[in-house]
Specification:
Rhopdopsin 7-helix transmembrane proteins; single chain; mainly alpha; transducer; 140 residues; 6 helices; GPCR_Rhodpsn_7TM
């Protein structure tokens, strides 16, 4: 689970942060509308994968403490792989909406770029990427 968390964070640092830095330094987006949409989706994907990995770690540790004697039979290699696949599938579901059109109309200026602020998508993504994992981590 730790390697998965590190992978998500490394992917974020190599694919998202350099372009975020460019946007911050220049004050405008230089790479066009299509790459903006892809960049925003990868940003949400990596951040969601990181948060869901933390969620998986907290569930794993809870099981390890609460059911310490049965842990090896409860958390098998197959179940761990299934949990990691679930992290990445759920992390892919959340950012795919704006790529498929679930977003507000694109601004006329290609020099503007950001994650969509469409209200229902914002609610969906914040619940799935932050609030529900937060609740799981707090309960664990």
């Amino acid at each position: 689970f730790i390697v998965n968390l590190a992978s998500a964070d490394l992917l974020l640092s190599f694919t998202v942060l350099p372009f975020s830095a460019t946007l911050e330094v220049l004050g405008y987006w230089v790479l066009g509308r299509i790459f903006c949409d892809i960049w925003a989706a990868v940003d949400v994907l990596c951040c969601t994968a990181s948060i869901l990995s933390l969620c998986a770690i907290s569930i794993d540790r809870y099981i390890g403490v609460r059911y310490s004697l049965r842990y090896p039979t409860l958390v098998t290699r197959r179940k761990a792989i299934l949990a990691l696949l679930s992290v990445w599938v759920l992390s892919t579901v959340i950012p795919i909406g704006p790529l498929l059109g679930w977003k507000e109309p694109a601004p006329n200026d290609d020099k503007e770029c950001g994650v969509t602020e469409e209200p229902f998508y914002a609610l969906f993504s914040s619940l799935g990427s932050f609030y529900i994992p937060l609740a799981v981590i707090l309960v664990m």
